[in-house]
Amino acid sequence: MIDHFRARWFGEDERALGRSADALMNSPGRAQGRVADWSLCRMAAVLQRGARRPLDIAPVGTAQLTANERSLLAILDALSEGDDSLAARHAEWLVAPSALRAFLSATAPLADIYPKLSRAA
Known about the structure:
Helices cover about 75% and strands about 0% of the residues. It is an all-alpha fold and about 120 residues long. It is globular and about 35 Å long. The termini are close together. The relative contact order is 0.18. The mean pLDDT is about 90.
């Protein structure tokens, strides 16, 4: 999951982005994979414009998570558990107040998909 986000964050070459999108369409499935890919693209775009501070995102393929990546996963965990308030509190550490709504809107489609992605990983 986080490698798909990293690919979007770093704007990997078209072939790498295509492989990531294809992998998402294989698991959790074609329609949900497209939604997940779109959501990850939007998340990265909002964070690149509206992050509170420069974010530490590890290169694609790195085994360890950065603190910022752990925050992203905490947001996804909260959303998938239906705790929008907790997701917003976690997001406040990453994004400026002016970008909070856009970030949560971009992330929300992953609420139902993320548990399937994390099990498949």
